[in-house]
Each structure stands twice: as C-alpha cells, then as structure tokens.
Amino acid sequence: MHSIFQILLCFCLATAVSANELASPESDPVVPPPPQSVAGVLLEKGTRKPISDSIFYVRPATETQFVQAVTTDAGGGFALELPPGKYQAIFAVMGYTRTEIDFEVTANAPALLEFRLMPLATNPYQIVVKQPRNTTTVSSQTISSQETAVMPGAGRDVLAAVSNLPGANTLSAFNGYGNGLIIRGSENDDSLFPVNEHSLPMFYHFGGFESIIEPELVESLTFEAGGFSAEYGNATGGVVAMRLKDPRTDRLGGYANLGLLSTSAMVEGPITAKDSFALSIKRGFLDVYVKTALEIKDESAVDPGFTTYPMYYDATGIYKHVIRKGNELKLIAVGSSDRVALLDKENKASERYANDQFFDQEFLNLMGEWHLQQGAFKSVLSPLLAYRLLQWHEGPRAFHKQREFQLGLSEKLEFRLTENQRIKTGGRLSAYYTAMDSNFFIQPKEGEITQAYADKELVFDDDIRALYPSFYLMDELHLDRFHLTPGVHALWDIHNGHTAIDPRLSAKYRLFEPLTLKAAVGQYSMLPKADECHAPWGTKGLKPERALHTVAGVEYRLTKDVLLDVQGYHKQFDDLVARSADDPTRFSNSGTGRAYGMECLLRHDLAENLFGWISYSYTVSKRKDAPGEAERYFDDDITHTVKTVMNYKPSTYWSFGFKYEYASGKAYTDLLNTPTWYEVDQDKYHPLYTGPINDNRLSDHHQLDFRIDRYWYFDNLILSTYLDVRNVFQNKVAVDMAYNKDYTQREEQLALSSHIPMIFVGAKLDF
C-alpha cells in the first residue's frame, strides 16, 4: 500500500513539472499560415458561357457553417482570401443544377479555380417564338426556346413550330412547310414573312424540303394570325416576323451539324471589344438522296436523266458594331441557291419543248440596321440591297428568266411619352427593277385549273420598274385594366395610281385577375401581284385587295401553368383580283369573299419538365370572282384541325415528345372524265373544264410524330443527338388529286411520308 502511494505521488510531480515547462515563456507560439489569394471563373458546362452576377458559398470541408458568400462579376470571375486547407463550394444558381465542388488551397501557391455548372436548359442557343412585350395584339401565340428546340416532327425548323399553332395549316409533297402557311383561310401569298425589317424571296428549298435560315441564328419569331397592328402592311392574311440574333460577345464558339437533310456549321464571337460576328453555311443532301435512289432503283422505273442533281446551298452572315450604349450598327447578309437540270434521252426536242430542262433560283439580301436609343426615344433605320435570279428553261417557246434588283429603306420610331403610353411611327420605301425575258403559257390563279391556259402563250421581253412607299402611326396606351392600340397604315401604289388608308384598333381588358377579354377590328390592304397589273400578263390600274378583320376572344388562366385561349374571327374580302372570263390577260377587282371561324387552345406552359397543348381550329373560307356567281371555297380551305403537342424532359440529358394532328381534307376541283384537248407537241392532254370549282374534298388525314433527344455535356462542348420520326404509322396524307394521262382515272397524291418512313437522325456539336 505504501508503494502504491509513492508511485502516485511521483506521477503527480511529473505532471506538474511538464505543465510548468509548457507554460514557460521561452516556448514558441503556434502561428497560423497567412490567407492565400484565390481567383477563378464560373462557367456553364458545355458552352463555356460565363455565369455572371451570381452568388455561391464557400465553407471548410470539415465544417457545416458557411464562411463566405462570393459574387461573380460580369465575366463570371471571382476573387477571395482563404487560409490553406480543404474547402467546399456550394452552388444554387437559378437555371443550373445545384452543385457542390471540393477544392483545396495550399500555402505559397495562389489558387486558380474553374467551376462549371450544368444548365437546366439543354439548348445553348436562344430560339424564342414570342409576342412583343406589353402588346395589345389579340391573336399572338408564344413558344419558349426549350419547346421549339424539341418540337416533334419539326427537325431543326423553327417555322414548323408556327404550323402547330391554332390558325395555321400547311400541306406540301414533302409533308413539310414549303407550300407556305395557310393562316385563317388565307393563302401563303396573302401573308407577310419579314426577316428583321425586310422580306426574303423564299424560305424553303424545292417546295418544302428544308428551310433556309439556320435555327441557331433566330432570336425571336412573332406569329400574328389576324388583327395585327398598323406596323405591318401589304398583307390581308397574317404575319410571321422572324428576327435574327445578335452575335455573342463573350467568347468564340459555334457548332457543326450533321443530319440526314444537310450539313451545316456556324461560328460566332467577338472581333474587338465593340465588334462581333456570326457566319453560317449549309449544304443540302437532296442530290445525294436522288443519286442513291437512282442507283438502287427498280429496272422498270423511269430514269429522269439528271445532268445536275437537285442541290442547294445557304449562307448567312451577321456583323455588329457598338458605337456606344444605345447606338449600334448591324450588317446582315442572307443568300441561297437552288439548282437542278435534266436531259430526257428518250424523247426528242419539239417545236415548243426541248429535251433538256433546268431550274435555277438564287438570291442575296444585304440588310443594314442602325439602332439608336436615347432616353424615351428609339429608332431603327434599315436599308436593303437585294438581288434575285429566277430562271427555268424547257424549250425555245417555254422559258422564263428574271433578274430582279431591289432597294429598300425602312424607318421605325418610338416615343415613350409616359410609362403607360408609347407612340410608334415609321415608313417604308421599296423600289424594284426587274429585267424579264419570258415565253410561257399563262399561269393559273386561285381557283383556276392548272392546265386551263396551256394553249395561250405570252411573250415578255422588257423591264419593270416599281416604287411603293408606306407609312404607319400607332399609339400603345395602357390604362389600369385597359390596353388600347389605335393605329393607321397608309400604302401608295404608284404604278396603278391608288392609295390605301387602313385604320385599325385592338384592345384588351382584364375583367379580373385570371380572365382577360380581347378584341380587334381593322382594315388591311394588299397590292395586286406583278403579273396581274403589268401587260401583257395583266391589267394596269387595279386597286389593292382589301380585308376587314374582326376578332374577339377571352384568355383564362386556369392555373399558374395552364392557359385557355378561345377566340372567334371574321374576315370580309373586297376588291379581290379576278381574271376576265373573256380575256385571260384582263383582270378586275370584281371578287369578294369571307373567312370565319374559331380557335381554342389549352396549353400547359413549360413547368415541371413538361409542356404541351391541345388546339382546335374551325375555318370556312369562301369567295366569288364576279357579282352574281355562287360562292366557292378557296383552294386552301381546311375546315377542321386538331393538334396535340406534348414533351416530357425527365432529366437534363433526355427529352421525349410526340405530336398528333388531325385535319380535314382541303377543297379541290374534280377533273375525272372531263373533256380534254390534245397537245401534239408535248403528247399531253389538257382538261376543258367549265363546272363548279372546289366542290370536293380530299381525304381527312391524321398522323403521329415522335422525337427523342439525348445530350452529352463536356467541359468545352455539347454533343446533342435526336431521332425524329415523322408520320410514325405512315398514314395517308393527301396533298392533291392526281390524274392519268387522259383524265379517265384518278388517285390522291400523297405526301412523301405516306410512302416511305420519314426518319431523321441528326447530331450537332456545339462549342
């Protein structure tokens, strides 16, 4: 027991001595290492886009408390001071996946960090189909960029999104959109399709094979089905206004696209601190398909004898220079070329027709823009220089060559008088010079039989000059629950000696928070076409065609994400241009007509990884060409249309969508067993029909489109692929009625997707 006590006493003394030594003033204190400078940048994964003005948090890896909040600058950069050690950065940035990233700071080694966040949106380019902000337009529809990028059945075509909206229909042999949009019963030529401030001669290759404008260059697309504002003139149908994007200024980037239709590439980025550019090119594969099909064709098939396979090219360039904030210059160039040539070795040339044929169409639009904004004043001045070549040759008495030069000038002004009132005004001047050399039979007009005037040739070898000025004035007024837009558009036809003054008014009234009433009324005028008012084809002095639009409807938001839009409309047509029954080269404004209908749209906005809509359109469009005649349907009258679009995005990497469409058949004139006359020169029968027009209907059709998208994200690029199946079950889609040689048999002409599977696979590398 005494030994144990001695051992414990010795242990206590030893402990006391050790504690005293530790407390000795001669001991060196522990000095923590100094903080280190930490700099870095926050980027979007795949696109390298800087994530600016965003906050993230940093904490030690072994703790749960945030030690510092960090804000990125305009270039995504950040800087902070941290002692050496292990840390964790926590990101909860809007539009990106929540992310936690570990990193380490070491002594005497400045840390340079690069963090990348996964975006929730998979499209690195902004493609937005939308209506203008604070507009009182009553018949606009909107589609977000994510919805457009994965639209089933559309491929990479932005305009195809419009055809899925109520009020728009289309039919073409490619089951595409090249025959133009039928907007509320009005044919394509009655509607306006401007790109920025000016129109393009065409939007599609070879009647609907593929669109000209690359979707990655599109910033916005405004669809006005009717009752549109006074800003737009020379149209009685609707408006589809496309606006091209500004080039990116943060970095150099672009994409390379390889699809079954074409291959394309685009590069864009800054040149200097004030200059940027974008350039895209495209080469179509239609010639490759045709050549391959001929190589594997059945022995009984007829070889058309291509000497130049159908081919096309596109190019678009955009250059922007910032003089200073609110003062910018832009130059835009859009060019395209289509060409095909054939040689028929079986049939010899005749007096009228040759055994070699070719078609060539190309254009180049050069557009400038000067954007100026100073306080409450805005101005957009846009000159245009355009060239177009259109020619085809089928023989010594069957050819057409047209070279057209256009000078244009557009000016748009806006004055913000108060926060609730804006005055908008502007004008447009279009001058044309066309050199024409043509020897061809008379081309049919709306409601006429295709071969009706095949025996009447017209020779034209002269120049055409035309000048068309226009002006508009409108007032956008927002008063509590009322939104009013009165306006007027004036158009002068110098060649025919007429003036059109079109007053318009649109209004919206918010009855209560979910429910808005809307209405519009206005007059719309459209100039007669060149071949209708220039001799020897037509009659000088024609008046503009007129249409009176009346629209009324309601918008009701069932939930935050679900909208119901119902509207009805009526269009009264007057002064329609019609051909004389006695002389096919004489025209008059004897035609009248009407179009009426209703549209219903139930839409789920993009939310919870889901978007879609169900729409129904009912349209009746009729006209008569002279007083006392019975009404007949327009050529493009399609009465009932139901469309359902749905897309689900279960993750950042996948999306699935489908589109179902049902449409009644369009009107047509039945030529079965009609009397004919025989043209020896071409060994061809031509119908001699004098009966009722468009009193029959093609078959109704329905089709299902399906699409899958898959995305792979890398640090500096994105690989996106898609599988788009158009008309999955190959249902019959009738676009016209076809007849045998002497009109004793007939069958419906079907869209291409009715014969072969339309499966489109594409891959795009964005960098």
Could you please describe the fold and organization of this structure?
This protein is globular. Strand 44 (734-739) and strand 45 form a beta hairpin. It is 6% helix and 55% strand. The chain has a 22-stranded antiparallel beta barrel. Strands 3-2-5-6 form a 4-stranded antiparallel sheet, with no helix packed on it. By secondary structure, the chain is mainly beta. It starts with a helix and ends with a strand. It folds into 3 domains: 36-117, Immunoglobulins (Immunoglobulin-like), CATH 2.60.40; 128-242, TonB-dependent receptor, plug domain (Ferric Hydroxamate Uptake Protein, Chain A, domain 1, Beta Complex); 243-766, Beta Barrel (Maltoporin, Chain A), CATH 2.40.170. It has 5 helices and 46 strands.
Please specify the SSE layout and strand pairing.
Layout: H1 2-22, E1 36-44, E2 55-60, E3 68-71, E4 77-82, E5 85-91, E6 99-105, E7 111-117, E8 128-129, E9 140-141, H2 145-149, H3 160-163, E10 168-169, E11 182-183, E12 194-195, E13 198-199, E14 204-205, E15 210-211, E16 218-224, E17 239-244, E18 253-259, E19 262-270, E20 275-284, H4 286-295, E21 306-324, E22 327-343, E23 356-374, E24 377-395, E25 398-418, E26 421-441, E27 457-479, E28 482-493, E29 498-512, E30 515-526, H5 530-533, E31 545-557, E32 562-579, E33 587-607, E34 610-624, E35 632-633, E36 640-648, E37 654-663, E38 667-668, E39 676-679, E40 684-687, E41 696-697, E42 701-713, E43 718-726, E44 734-739, E45 746-750, E46 758-766
Parallel strand pairs: 1-7, 8-16
Antiparallel strand pairs: 1-4, 2-3, 2-5, 5-6, 9-16, 10-11, 12-13, 14-15, 16-17, 18-19, 18-46, 19-20, 20-21, 21-22, 22-23, 23-24, 24-25, 25-26, 26-27, 27-28, 28-29, 29-30, 30-31, 31-32, 32-33, 33-34, 34-35, 34-36, 36-37, 37-42, 38-41, 39-40, 42-43, 43-46, 44-45
